[in-house]
Amino acid sequence: MNGVRPQKKLSQNQLTQALFEVSGKVERLSMAFTHDMQRTNILLFTLLKELGKVEEIKCESCGVVNLRPIMEGIEVNPMCVECGERIEPWDERAFTGELMDEEEE
Fold this sequence. Notes:
The protein is mainly alpha-helical. The chain is 48% helix and 10% strand. Strands 1-2 form a two-stranded antiparallel ribbon. A hairpin with a 6-residue loop joins β1 and β2. 2% of the residues are buried.
């Protein structure tokens, strides 16, 4: 046996404590990552705003100002990031079928 004692199995209490510790560490890491992403988004949209590449649209439902990039090839979400309501009106051509004709061309 080389004088090495085999490792004992952990008790249920020890396993529970270890799980709580790991869970807490993962939560702190997740929060740090979230804060870093928020700071990165603020910096990015501030830069884009200075370059004139951001559109600000106020949601009529909740009053939140939505920032959307104005760049070719980037599809923008027509819904409010806060409440999920549509922030830009439907194009009237959507109701007449004209948009479908344009997409097919």
